[in-house]
Structure formats: structure tokens, C-alpha cells
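User: Hi! I'm working on a homework problem where we have to compare a predicted structure to a textbook description. Could you give me the structure for the chain below?
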Amino acid sequence: MIRTTAAAVLALTGTALAQPQIVIDVNNPVLLPGQSALVTVRAGYGGTDWAIAGVGTNFVTSVGSTGWSGAHVIRELAGPGTSPGTPSSTGIDGVVAGQYQSPTSQIYADPTNPIAFWQATYTAPLDPAAPFTIDLSTMTSRYEVYIRRDSTLSESRLADLVEGSATIRVIPAPASALVFALGAVALRRRR
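Assistant: Happy to help. Predicted C-alpha cells:
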């Protein structure tokens, strides 16, 4: 089951969210061996809050950090003290993203809701023995919002946060495709 789709994320960006939540978007949720999926994690807020101030989370996967590459904090939330996280046996730990706001200096946070804050690429193994599902989720320890455009004051929304979740399904190449490929190689060798 695909829990988050690109269409759902687009629908979310057009309307205010009811409460703070993390959205995990997988651009290609069904992979064949060797294929890749770009995973984008977004932070959203509800109510009358102005913008995301900072997020501290672990990106948890059922395959740990195996197959993951290119983890980075997205530019808009790559403020001071941010980190793309560290690979671990449970995924990517210590993702820190945030944006600076200083109304007195005419610097305002981006109020996009939900706003993308982290991305990484998952590449399926070349030789999976059987189909498998990779469960993705977040485990957040910090989730703060700026409460107004004209203030540097931020407040935690961790108590009301809905954590993100999604899946990636890896399906081995059909045996018939493998037989066809081997036959094509044999024909080339005869010529």
C-alpha cells in the first residue's frame, strides 16, 4: 500500500493542514532491481502558525541505511546548524533542518506548507531473491514553528505532530524477462 503519493502532497500544498505533520513523498514507490526512488520529507503545520522554524528527526527504514545515498537538507531549510544525518542500522539518524527569521533585518522564513526539508535516494539491490517492502517513517524529537511573520518567537508543536510514513516495494525482474535477455545475448554471440 502506498501511503503517500505525489498527488496527495500536491493536494496538501493547496490547503492549510489541520495539524503539524511530516509527509514522506516517494516519487517511484515500486522498483525493479537497480532502479531508484527519490524520497522527499516535508514538514507541515496547522492553525495560524506562520512557518516551520526547525525539525530534528530520525529517518527510519526497515533496511537501515543500506541502499540509501545522496542524503541532504533542502536549501530552504539548510540554515545554521543543520545536518543531513548519519547513516545507521535503523536508517538516517540526526536529520536537522531549520530556517532563520529576523523581521528587523527583513529576513522572513518561507511559509510554504508543507515545506520540503530533506531528500535521499534509495536504489534497489540488483539481485533480490523475492519481492519485499521497505517501510519508511520518522521519529521526531524537535518540531518548532514560527508563530507569526513579524516575530522571531518559535514554539514546539511536537506534542501534536503526526509522524510521516510511506513504503517502497521492490519486485524482482520477471523470470521471462531474464530468459529473453539471455536469449538475446546468445543470438548476438552466434552472429
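For your comparison, note the following. The two ends are 46 Å apart (CA to CA). Residues 1-14, 176-180 have pLDDT under 50 and may be disordered. Good luck with the assignment!
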